Amino acid sequence: MSEPVKASTSLKASKVTWRTSAASFRTLREVPAFQPAAEERYTVREKSVGALLGQCDEDNKELSLYYLSRTLVGAELNYTPIEKTCLALIFAVQKLRHYLLAHSTNLISRADPLKYIMSQPILSGRLAKWALLLSEFDINFVPQRAIKGQALANFLADHPVPAEWELTEEFPDEEIFLVEVLPPWEMYFDGAARRNGAGAGVLFVSPKKDLLSYSFVLSQICSNNEAKYQAILLGLGIAVEMQLPQLNIYGDSALVIKQLSGEFEVKKIELEPLWRYVGELLAQIPEVSLHYVPRFENGPADALAGIAASLARFDERPNQVPICERWVIPPPLEEEKEEEQTEETEESLPISGSQNQTEDWCKPIINFLRHSTLPVDLRERVQIRRTAPRYIFINDVLYRRSYEGLLLRCLSKEEGLQVLKETHGGICGAHQAGPKLHLQVKRLGYYWPTMLGDAIEMARTCKPCQLHADYIHQPPMPLHPTVASWPFEAWGMDIIGPITPKSDTDRQYILAATDYFSKWAEAAAYREVKATTVADFIRTQIIYRYGVPRYIVTDNGTPFRNKVMDRFCEKFRIQQRMSSAYNPAANGLAEAFNKTLCKILKKTVGTHKRSWDEKLPEALWAYRTTPRTPTQSTPYSLVYGSEAVLPLEVQLPSLRIAVREGLTTEECAQLRLAELESLDEQRLEAQQRLECYQSRMTRAFNKKVRLRSFQKGDLVLTVRRPMLFTSKTGGKFAPKWEGPYVVQEAYTNGAYKLVTANGSELPITNGKFLKRFYP
């Protein structure tokens, strides 16, 4: 090349004739004509990386453009395999930036470093730097199929260029030698699973089209995918023994092929060890490629697998088909063989894996990492083989690698409980809930297998957390509505007051009673309400007018809960049912009437507030003559069989009044008898409407129910209700719950009788004010 250049500088006027070598040099200086996409390959070794940039010509023939390789130095030697793969890609794009910026590039490889970098939940350090660097290039990942370009990348990685060498553009050897390449071996595999057995078939095709067929019986029943993995394992084992340099593998299972090529993830636990062992065998073959073929193209291997699976149980007569029985597992170590022989000879069984894990769960993993020894129990062996890759042993300390890439120090059960105790309630402890406590301990850098359950148990059994916990608003039991089958069978009683201001007659209480069936109400105003006042009210306002009721529902107030009322109810054989303390919903009918009566009085007293006792009869009359929602009838009509005549109907006669004025006394009597005869039917219809109303109300209530029940002897906490604050107030920082107490008796309607540790009884408490105490 130097001679034409010298001639052109010395003989400027003469015409220069370029020879073939000069034309070749001019061709090398031309900018390569890129196709729509370039191809980049790379390979990674333990101490070096290599890359190759190429493109396909019009005949789809792969051409090489640039070769790169370098050795790993310093901290790069400690990178994980996938990080070394990412480093090879970063090295290539930095050196070939001027090629890759203007064109789309296909990255051909077995592993996808782009997916690894972009799928990290948290990018920090070099990963963030790499992700930012790759964002300016148009790089698409293509699973590796062809081997030619990858072989060059492997060669460059195995023979890295020293750092002190300078790149040169001179090519001393420009001659190209033709090398005849024999076609690679081909392997077809398939597996078949039956109810009574499983088989695997493998077919090898040599470069000269010779056939080698194998059929294996799998000694354990497995799934179809496991059988296919076993088939490819058996075939790869034979290929490794034959020392095949090149191998094309064909199978009709798209799942297995794409999992091995890296397109799909292995999600089933039982396939993960097989997938890992296949990868180890694939690495022992210099050049290998995986291809998916339809089922009809994989017929011979399918037939071999079917023969092995079908003849697995037929051992009455000998068959002419040779079948090899084998179950592929990684070769055991010598220590494992000795342990298996010891296990067969020993009569006593070892301690179960759960007990060993509770005693010292780190010891088997440390023994496996340091000495490659496994425990005697088969289940523990499988579990340790699966979990050991996530552990690392550094400076006599076992660490576990988290999903974020952080190293968590492994603790024993006792050390973990001590860490939880200090983190939850120690110095700067926030008394967090179980899941948050687990995350906090994990962020501190600790791990043990049961840390989540221990954190939840620690937070649940913490007494300050239980005493200061939030109230439970969900009802603990389904709704039990009070059902009355006939008028005046059951009454609900309550006291309204003290009322401010007092009336003109110095009265400040209203004693009210409401019938559960007809919703008929009786009320009277008193200066004070005592036990004798309640007894006289029941006698004069209820018994003397409507008969002796079957039971009366009251609260736990002093006027209702005393010896006078006990003797009175015993005399008339009346059942007195008391609601639980601070639970107005247990006597909901009386509370609803109290609310309605107070609303009517508020709107009728006007400016003279102290005349409310004079307006009380009018309010009762308005309530009795108004249709109630549950029965859709007025209480007056359900009691007397007809609607009451209101003063308005007298002033402006309605149709009913006009018709009755034209009737004789005998006709009025007959009309009244007809109304009384239809009264029973009217009451039955009202009862049906009442039951439908209660059913709708029960369904709506039960949607919010979260069942919570207790048994006799359980320890519970009770809500600190207002009566407890009067005796001892704790201010803003007082606990919301009090206890623990012992359940002495459990009732069917969700109420409980509690006793203290000293044996003193508490008032009957509803279950919604209780929660379980964990000592």
Automatic annotation (TrEMBL):
The keyword Transferase applies. It comes from the Eukaryota. This is Uncharacterized protein. The keyword Transferase applies. One of its GO terms (biological process) is DNA integration. InterPro entries: DNA/RNA_pol_sf (IPR043502), Integrase_cat-core (IPR001584), Integrase_H2C2 (IPR041588), RNaseH-like_sf (IPR012337), RNaseH_domain (IPR002156), RNaseH_sf (IPR036397), RT_RNaseH (IPR041373). Residues 181-314 form the RNase H type-1 domain. It comes from Aristolochia fimbriata (White veined hardy Dutchman's pipe vine). Residues 334-357 are annotated as: Disordered. Keywords: Endonuclease, Hydrolase, Nuclease, Nucleotidyltransferase, RNA-directed DNA polymerase, Transferase. Residues 483-643 form the Integrase catalytic domain. GO terms for molecular function: nucleic acid binding; RNA-directed DNA polymerase activity; RNA-DNA hybrid ribonuclease activity. Transmembrane segments: none annotated. Residues 334-347 have a biased composition (Acidic residues). It holds the Pfam family Integrase_H2C2. Coiled coil: none annotated.
